[in-house]
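Posting for a labmate who doesn't have an account.
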Amino acid sequence: MRSHENSISSLATPVAPGRLSSATATPGSAKPAAFAKALQQAQTPAPTTAPAPRAVHTVESGDTLIGVVRQHAEMRGIHLSGSQEMRLARQVANSNRIENADLVYVGQKIDLSGVGRELQALRPGAGRGADTSRTQTASAAPGTPVLARKMVATPASTNQTTATPLASAQAPLVASGAAHPVLQKTLDRAVAKGFIPPAEKSAVYDKILQMAGNHRFSPDDFARMTLMESDGMNPRASNQRCHGIIQFCDGPARGAASAGYAANPKAILDLSVHKQLNLVDKYFDDVGLKNQGPAGLEDLYLSVLNPASRAESKSNAPLNIQGQQARALHVGRDGTGPITRHSIRQGLLQNAAERLGQMLPNSLRVQAQRAQQYVENNLP
């Protein structure tokens, strides 16, 4: 973590063979065997097809809008990217007049008919003009409902909600073609280290995607940032002055104060990763991250480290960041040297490769290191 001062039956019964064999031939009639075969074919029920996905989904414990959309698509044989899931989930929220997309209720009916046509267009082999995979979630208008945390409330309760994330199988460490591979690997690592309960991984993933769409940053870049700040979403990471997954620092007008913990910053350490993400969401609003345009890795990290330094746009200009930070962030990894946008980017990429590479088999680790070295050598 850094050290600094800033800061989810057949309807027909088959004819018995003995009944077919009892047929006898008459002159001029078909042969018994041919007659039996024709009779069997006529009485054999036609193959049944898989039931069509239901247009109305009844919410069960552990459901989220994004999960419902994903399941509805998979029943049609369609695999959605993360951005497509988010966009269609927002569309479902709008069409069902769900004002708080963070909260759905057990027994609630959700009409999915509105996204059926789009899903049909996304089937493999559909026309190119129907492909909406390049739609940017970041272009959503302010106030558009977005999918957030996985919360399900029982209808009998009006004042309490209980988080009941839907447990899912762990994604493979090396997910070829995964929508957000660095985020997936970081979450796998966080679960393995005990930072995130396995049952909450899905909810954490969904929340990060929601924030990425709202604040206009890459989910993978968020993972890279937490790998530097808290060893990859350790909710109890602390350097005595700064605490949690992005290191909320104490003091007036700093991270802990923005999150509502000015009086007792260390209380953040008692919150789960999912709850801390809600604080991160508020903090990003406070520092105006979405107002900076689509945020690159450096701007995302500077929003946490020292928002004022985002004003410097030159890649190699020294940034006015007080105090020594993690060596990887300094030029040449020299703790006494300056920090620049270029050194921040290089440090975060290399740090992420090193931490995630430790989880890879030796053969894949070498490939990852070579790929990372190529990235570093070709940075602008």
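Reply:
Got it, the structure tokens are right above this. The beta strands are 56-58, 103-105, 109-111, 151-153, 242-243, 248-249.
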